[in-house]
Amino acid sequence: xxxxxxxxxxxxxxxxxxxxxxxxxxxxxxxxxxxxxxxxxxxxxxxxxxxxxxxxxxxxxxxxxxxxxxxxxxxxxxxxxxxxxxxxxxxxxxxxxxxxxxxxxxxxxxxxxxxxxxxxxxxxxxxxxxxxxxxxxxxxxxxxxxxxxx
Length: 150
What we know:
Blueprint: H1 3-6, H2 10-22, E1 37-41, E2 58-62, H3 63-94, H4 96-106, H5 110-120, H6 123-141, H7 143-149
Antiparallel strand pairs: 1-2
């Protein structure tokens, strides 16, 4: 079943109506209650149908806010990728003296050491600092929308 077909499923239609009713048929971000409303998933989970989300993961927003959200999300995702690349590069460059020492004392080529370090740096290694900083940036960028949800 395609995503479009899932949105026509009676289970989604029921859930959609329940969320809109909970939100008084009003956009939670801008207060619009006259234009077309959508139900927005605050996050997506792999292999989960639209109607399987908990109510607190769904909000009513107008079509305009929904389009804006998806445009911002794309920009934020691009920013995250750039941030990750820069952060990883900065970490690797900070290790250059270590890499040079490894090469000097072991005759192990610096390029190989650099490749190993680059490939083994995972999100787990950088997780807390990296994601805290990034989501703090996203929060500041979208503070009004986030506060409206909370």
